[in-house]
Amino acid sequence: MTTAQLRPLTELQALESESIHIIREVAATFASPIMLFSGGKDSVVMLHLAAKAFWPAPIPFGVLHVDTGHNFEEVLQFRDEAVDFYGASLKIASVQDYIDDGRLRERPDGTRNPLQTVPLLDAITEGRHDAVFGGGRRDEERARAKERVFSMRDEFGQWEPRNQRPELWSLYNGRHLPGEHVRVFPLSNWTELDVWDYIAAEKITVPTIYYAHERQVALRDGMWIAITDVTPARPGEVIEMRSVRYRTVGDMSCTAAVLSNANTVQDVISEVGLSQLTERGATRADDRLSEAAMEDRKREGYF
Amino acid sequence: MRPSSPLLAPAADSLTGGRTLLRLATAGSVDDGKSTLVGRLLFDTNSVLTDTLDHVELVSRRKGLDRADLALLTDGLRAEREQGITIDVAYRYFATPARKFILADCPGHVQYTRNTVTGSSTADVIVLLVDARKGVVEQTRRHLAVASLLRVPHVVLVVNKFDLVGYSEDAFTAVATDFALLARSLGVLETHCIPVSATEGDNVVTRSHRTPWYDGPTVLGYLENVDDTRLAVGSDFRLPVQHVVRPQSAVTAPWAARAPQVNGDYRGYAGKIESGRVRPGEEVVVLPRSSHAIVEAIDTPDGPLDLAVAGQSVVIRLNSDVDVSRGDIIAATDAPPAPIRDLTATVCWLAERELWAGARVLFQHGTSITKAIVRSIEGTLDLDFEAGTVPCWRPTSSLTLNDIGRVRLSLASPVPIDSYREHRATGAFILVDNADGWTLGAGLAGSTPLAAMPAAAPQSESQYPAQQGKPS
After folding, report:
1. Which of the two residues, B267 and A289, has the higher pLDDT score?
2. I need a surface site. Which of A2, A71, A114, B432 has the fewest CB within 10 A?
3. Which has the closest alpha carbon to B436: A230, A178, A56?
4. For residues B309 and B273, is the Cβ–Cβ distance under 8 A?
5. pLDDT for residue A284
6. Do residues B103 and B92 lie in contact, with contact meaning Cβ atoms separated by under 8 Å?
């Protein structure tokens, strides 16, 4: 038995319980939920919460990965291991397949992040998924600060910020019309530091690239980009071997590393606490495309 | 100007160690400096990071300002920037070593009722702003009335722009006295007033030496020390059942090796405790059928608990085979809510479409959804009340966006509803459009805490004054 607690919940207890409540509400009120899973730290935390939400029963829905074809090998391997560890079934929507058969075309800048939207929406339609869990957090970006926990999407997957439902108490309203679906963000109230604190407290395994490692990188637009077969150096760039880690995990073409010697969860927590750059500002080239980049992609049905 | 190192919390090594969580909502009218105050809280707690600040400084320079306009830190969507308006409640996060804060930043001007009601519904504290030069104004009265209706436990009045009244003690005393009178007349329990200049940073995070006559806490100091123990355990036990846990086969995935083993005939009831606390061995009642049982165990994948409190998601096992399903409420046997089919409630109307008597809607409460018919609309709360008076109900035949109405409802089946005054979570409900699923209204069951007296004459008001109409 754990010790009696006659005081308020801690921050992590409160956030965990809130997320579990949200995940259980979705499973109980939607016909066919699915959880987006990239192998990134937020999605691992979300999957961990799902496992805890339904224990001692298994997770009652599958997970979906939209694979850009430019993912880090370590992350893909981790993805498969994590799915086995938590006993979830994995479905993959492949951007590469869409490019190979001509349904999508490579962008001139080589970035594949914006190309994920079509395979994602097709997978949602094909699977008749009426609820889609995403690992988005409101602290990530200012367009997210106004996102609901239950976020309505129309047939085109679009988000209309002026047409959101008020969300009161812990009464989540997931009613929707046929063809529409609901994006659900159980980690809405978590910050980057909360996620790492929880990873530490719960001893959750995350991909190795979140910790410091030696890697070939080049400095591009002030960000350290990994130099690989699919993301070669550009003319004039100097390839260096540096100790780096990733704060977010996404498509290699637009996810940058930060210089770091943080080898352990506690090191990472200290580093995140001290960091003077927001997570996305430091490492996501795609959010730099325009002032309202995230807002635009969300409207189009992005995560 | 920027503190050199952030306020780091000790790293949590377990879920039970570390800081607590407090939920805030802001309220204030246009030009009270709310964005600047929120920006100042974020900035002075080092919750704003370099790239965000670079952006703010760039925009400030472009606007010809000689220093960073902290109000820009809460700059929202492009549509809002283009139109110079704030559409919606935005959520902000900041933390100190003692607490993490979730702040629902509610725009003051556009649809203030809808936004303030939404933000207040989950708030432990309302941060209400006034301009020191103007003092308590109509908008303050409205916001405080809404905070009172929604039973937000604490209200802190930030008397802003004190630099513009020469940091005068008399100006502060005048506002604080007005506010105390207003709070008392509206039945608001705990209030505190703080003299602040958000642009100068006086008494927001750091204590100002320009207000030597003020010996209370700063805004952040107040927020760090607000008593939240009562919030957690002060009320009767209520747990709306989310689902029945009856695994066909127990989870076999490797992660479950760290969780307790369960029997093949496991049967438990999953939900989040909305209020109060519960221990194994206690008698509870399952509503609406009113069957009694003893709590056999409180299970979590981290192990069984000998005590669980409000806010915790758990699985409850009972000692007998009572019939329990999603939508039921497990409650303390002492004064459980009676299942009712007819109730009077205060409804904050959140939709563009109007509500008329006879309307058929869905009634969402706890984890249940029931059909409902609006029997009658008794009145709408007039928030344009004068200083020294309280809001009163005016007769009406319909509710429109941002109205707060007194409504009688009939439900298709009995629902165990608490009075909102005593139980914020299980006294609350939302009304949903059956056709398109839109959230139409936010409901507070039972009597309102406002001491509103019926206005002269109209019969609907004399029949249903604000103090009556408790469910059951």
Report:
1. B267
2. A2
3. A178
4. yes
5. 54
6. yes
At residue A244, the 3 state secondary structure works out as strand
B153 or B3, greater pLDDT: B153
Q: How far is B111 from chain A (nearest CA, A)?
A: 12
SS3 B154: strand
What amino acid occupies position B17?
G
Query: Which residue, among B313, B402, B444, would best test binding to A if mutated, counting the most A CBs under 10 Å from its CB?
Result: B313
Domain B233-332 has CATH 3.40.50.300: no
Amino acid identity, residue B403?
D
Cβ-nearest to B428 among A171, A201, A291: A171
Distance CA(B20)–CA(A228), nearest Å, equals 44
Domain ranges of chain B: 20-227, 233-332, 339-463
Q: DSSP labels for A163-220?
A: GPPP-BTTB------TT-EEEE-TTTT--HHHHHHHHHHHT----GGGS-EEEEEEEE
Flag if A85 and B11 touch (Cβ within 8 Å). no
Nearest to A185 by CA among A121, A133, A129, A130: A133
Q: Which residues contact A186 (CB under 8 A, 6 or more apart)?
A: A18, A19, A22, A23, A46, A49, A133, A149
Structural domain boundaries of chain A? 11-194+293-299, 206-288
Dist CA B383 CA B333 (whole Å): 38
Given a cut of 50, whether residue A282 has pLDDT beyond it is: yes
What totals of helices (H) and strands (E) does chain B contain, helices first?
9, 24
A96-115 confidence digits (pLDDT tens): 899 889 888 888 877 787 88
Q: Please judge whether A170 and B20 are an interchain contact, meaning their C-beta atoms are less than 8 angstroms apart.
A: no
Please name the residues in contact with B16: beta carbons below 8 A apart, sequence gap of 6 or more: A2, A5, A10, A13
Level-2 CATH architecture, domain A11-194+293-299: 3-Layer(aba) Sandwich (3.40)
φ, ψ for residue B159, nearest 5 deg: -90, 100
Which pLDDT belongs to residue A159? 79
> ipTM of the assembly?
0.90
Contacts of B274 in chain A (CB under 8 A): 170
- Collapsing DSSP to helix, strand or coil, B374 comes out as strand
- Which tens digit of pLDDT belongs to each residue from B15-72? 777 788 999 999 887 777 888 888 888 888 877 666 666 777 777 777 777 777 777 7
Which CATH number is correct for B20-227, 3.40.50.720, 3.40.50.2300, 3.10.620.30, 3.40.50.300? Answer: 3.40.50.300
